[in-house]
Amino acid sequence: MTVFQIFLLSVLSLGTATVLLLAWRRSMPRFAAAVIVAVLTGGIVFSVKPDLTTAIAHRLGIARGTDLLLYILVLAVLYGFIAIYLKLRRVRRELTLLVREIAIREAVRNDEDASKRARGES
Amino acid sequence: MSSVPSRSEIAPLPGGVRIAPEVARGTWVVIPVYNEARAVRAVIRGLREHFPNVVCIDDGSADGTWEVLRAEAPHALRHFVNRGQGAALQTGTAYALRHGAERIAHFDADGQHRVEDLARMATLVADGSCDIALGDRFRGETAGIPTGRRLLLRTAVLFHRVTSGIDLNDVHNGLRVLSRSAADRIELTADRMAHASEIIDLIARSGLRVAQVPVTIHYTDYSKAKGQSWTAGFRIIFHYLVGKVLG
């Protein structure tokens, strides 16, 4: 086992343990925890047996295991970007509604009605 | 406290344009203001002689705009963070509608629009000739429009002919008057500059009656420097299309 494999294994195991703990304490949704643990476990298996990726890649018609991992990574990153973009849009929209409401509530009036009120007329 | 003219004091407009006091009173003029401390004072003063209900929205300016608005504008509102022109228009519109506005006018803060054009457009909407009046600078006698700007605006018109199937002369003119019911039906969700396209889309979908009114735009060096560039145009198209797809 190489130094890098040991490093990777400890990081992935630590991550898995953390997610399991969070799920156990119910501070993370079960489904999300299951997905993350599955991905991390896959990572552990692949770091112990790197040749496995190549075997799977061949079955899918891809030449090398590293290419398979690269494609999965690209898809995951793309998904992440889109998810974050949609979330950001929603947050921007909500911020606008908040800023709008504050602006309307704290409007300063210098118009005729306001000066009438200031003079004590109705 | 600045003085605002009462109903009987509404001043005559240049060019013999007349507007009935009740039409002027029911027309709430919404002005989004972003870093226009230099220009906006004169714009407000020119307007409020004729239109008592002027709503200015400071869109998170950093140049003392808010101090000017607080002192000069009949209604001064403030976005404490910048949210873009479309968002500011919607804020002013929501405020005016809550206060019983019969019509909503959009007016630019940089002094490029004329009050008499607004008065003619407000009168058209008020007498029921149309639901929305759009300023049209290409039929007006717009002086000093730069060639690049003209080409850009023409391109925008073509773009809308394709995406909305609507044939308008001047889709990105900031001078508009909407009836209360038309303004009620438009909720500008594009925070930035794509709101002009949203309005055009709404018109295309809703079957509201539109009048294109020839107006004069003053192209000063100041307003030219503030206008939209070609790169901004492409950014606007991107935001508009994303908004169309994602809703």
Structure description:
- The complex is a heterodimer of chains A (122) and B (247).
- Chain A has 122 residues and is mainly α.
- Chain A has helices at 3-24, 30-48, 51-59, 65-105, 112-118, and one strand at residues 108-109.
- In chain A, helix 1 (3-24) packs antiparallel against helix 2 (30-48) and helix 3 crosses helix 4 (65-105).
- The longest helix of chain A is centred in the last third of the chain and has 41 residues, at 65-105.
- The model of chain A has no long low-confidence stretch (mean pLDDT 89).
- By secondary structure, chain B is an alpha/beta fold.
- Chain B has one domain (7-146, 169-188, 209-226): Alpha-Beta Complex (Spore Coat Polysaccharide Biosynthesis Protein SpsA, Chain A), CATH 3.90.550.10.
- A seven-stranded mixed β-sheet of chain B has the order 3-2-1-4-6-5-7, sandwiched between helices.
- The radius of gyration of chain B is 17 Å and the shape is globular.
- Chain B starts with 20 loop residues before the first helix and ends with a helix.
- The model of chain B is unreliable at 1-9 (pLDDT under 50).
- Classes of the chains: A mainly alpha (122), B alpha/beta (247).
- The A-B interface holds A 86, 89, 92-93, 95-96, 99-100, 102-104, 106-112, 115, 118 and B 1-4, 6, 52-53, 57, 69-81, 83, 87, 90-91, 94-95, 98, 189, 191, 246.
- Strand 1 (108-109) of chain A pairs antiparallel with strand 3 (75-79) of chain B.
